[in-house]
Amino acid sequence: MFEVLPYDSHLEARWDRFVMRESVNGTFLQTRRFLNYHPQGRFRDVSFLLESSGTIVAAFPGNLTESGEWISHQGSSFGGPVISKNFYTAERVQHIIECAEGYLKGICKSVKMRPTPGIFAQESTALLEYTLEHNGYKRQSELSAYCTLDQDTDPLEACEKNCRAVFRKSIPFDLEYRDITDEEMPEFYRHLCISKAKHNAKPVHSLEELLDLRHNRIADEVKFQALWKGDMFVAGMMTFDFEQASIRHAQYIAPNEEISDFQPTTAMYINVMREAAKDGFKKFSWGISTEDCGEYLNLPLFKFKESLGAKATLNLVYSKDIQAL
Q1: What is the mean pLDDT of the chain?
Q2: Most buried of the four, 36, 57, 105, 322, by CB within 10 Å?
Q3: Structural domain spans, the chain
Q4: What share of the chain is helix, strand, coil (3-state, %, to 5)?
């Protein structure tokens, strides 16, 4: 029923138009303008499109690992499949998944799909989730969180009492909240690396890649803000804007670990949420609080998010062993 089009560069414009304008669950994270920031060789890209009579019906961004697993996509927080608005029916989604799996059987041993979470999609993702689960895919859930926002309500009002008290400790310091300049980006990145190292991790992006995202690939969707105490860096944050779903998402936070007079992280989050509400966003997304595909919950981290008014939501991962090569 569908023709498979392995991705190459001449499909870039069609791919991105489909993801952003013609799909029910596409975001800029699945566009080629975002995915292509990764240098050649970092991933073995084996993305593909499904087409019907010249019309794109689905996009499957993905890469192949050395172990033979196809993942959608290691270069993005979530990948696919991305489904056409006009083909989002039970019968057609079933055919799309069957066709994609038939193609993947020829290039990989197993499949791991990370579809767009429901809060980022333009329509309910229940149909896609049901289809994957009932086609033999094992479902794993990662616990994420979000807050609802209103232009006329201070996000601080939704925070727990103890959180409001923690935030009030920062008020006497007359902190300045503003955009991070290019000249200040190395300072932001230095504190980000320090924060990640506490958890034996590193930032996914290099400083050069962050600047590329800022000025070239997703200039309209990425923001860098910071709090300053005079000339002292207090905390910084990188956020993504998902306009189609009216969500601002916290991607990175980088607190100054040397500050002890107040809590930089809480002060930063309150300021960022206030700005998001003022800018008209309906939700603020916190990202996952789990590791190893949801097997381990960082309970203190999730409780911290709850103290700031966050509610639970799920990011789903679907895995299946298919015919070996």
Answers
A1: 94
A2: 57
A3: 3-142+315-321, 150-281
A4: 35, 30, 35
> What one-character-per-residue DSSP string does 57-85 give?
EEEE--EE-TTSEEEE-TTSS----EEBG
Architecture per CATH, domain 3-142+315-321, reads as 3-Layer(aba) Sandwich (3.40)
Asked whether the domain spanning 150-281 has the same topology as the one spanning 3-142+315-321, the reply is yes
Put residue 312 in one of left, alpha, beta given phi > 0 → left and psi -120 to 50 → alpha: beta
Q: What is the pLDDT of residues 114-146, one digit of tens each?
A: 999 999 999 999 999 999 999 999 999 999 999
The closest alpha carbon to 323, from 67, 179, 47, 107, belongs to 107
Query: Alpha-carbon distance 128 to 82, whole Å?
Result: 10
Cβ neighbours of 123 (radius 10 Å): 14
pLDDT band at 40 (very low <50, low <70, confident <90, very high): confident
- CB under 8 Å to 172, separation ≥6 — which residues? none
Interatomic CA distance for residues 17 and 264, integer angstroms: 40
Degrees, nearest 5: CA angle 294-37-20: 75
d(CA 121, CA 124): 7
This prediction's pTM: 0.92
User: Cβ neighbours of residue 53 under 8 Å, at least 6 residues apart?
Assistant: none
Q: Residue 233 corresponds to which tokens in the numbers above?
A: 């860096």
Indicate the class that CATH gives domain 150-281.
alpha beta
Residues in the chain: 325
